[in-house]
Amino acid sequence: MSIMEDRLSLLETVELDQGAHSPDGKFCVMELAAYLANEPWSDHPDCVSPVIGAFLRSWNDSLNDQDRQMLKPLIPKVIGTATSKRDEETRAWMATDWLARECAPAWLRLAGLTAQAEALEKLAPLVSAASARKAQPKLDTARKDSAAAWDAAWDAAWAAAGAAAWAAAWDAAWDAAGAAAGDAAGAAARAAAGDAAWDAARDAARAAAWAAARAAAWDALTPTVRILQQSALQLVERMCEVGR
Length: 244
What we know:
By secondary structure, the protein is mainly α. It contains 12 helices and no strands. The longest helix is centred in the C-terminal third of the chain and has 31 residues.
């Protein structure tokens, strides 16, 4: 049995933990990837794509103890994804695109901003600075409308909405989008597109939480969170296929 095969058995018994650790038997998702790859202890293993690593470190720490365990099946898949700079740029755009065309629309629709959600879903994939600049007007409109919806909402709702949104990986996508060092124009366009989508998702989530609070039904947020979690898992798997 190889070292990798022997250590893979840990996936069945180890519980992923929040934050970084010393070698004490506790692992975050990236520390366990380093361990399985027989690398020195680290939450930045050399064998893992920096973009994927940024995504999973952020998401790992936003999830509760139970939901965090759904990341374990990804660990063998992320090992060996440290490929090329071009692949990193591709993955960063994939994270931006997911934030703009899947995450933000889900929260916009939950907040009752259906037309804005549909407008983002119909955007062409964000794969370059040019495509991001073309999408920017609709992203900016969604951001403005979601901010207006939140302005009419109840501040106390944000605590629950924030936790739900982070668990659904929007923060992780934003971190991943910024993890690749592309050309200046591409980085600026990606930042502008991602920022608009992030703001739209945030404010729409707040407004949705306010509506849920008025109905005394915080559980109204749960289906959207679960859908986005599954979507984010699929995003990471697609990122793993880049360069292979």
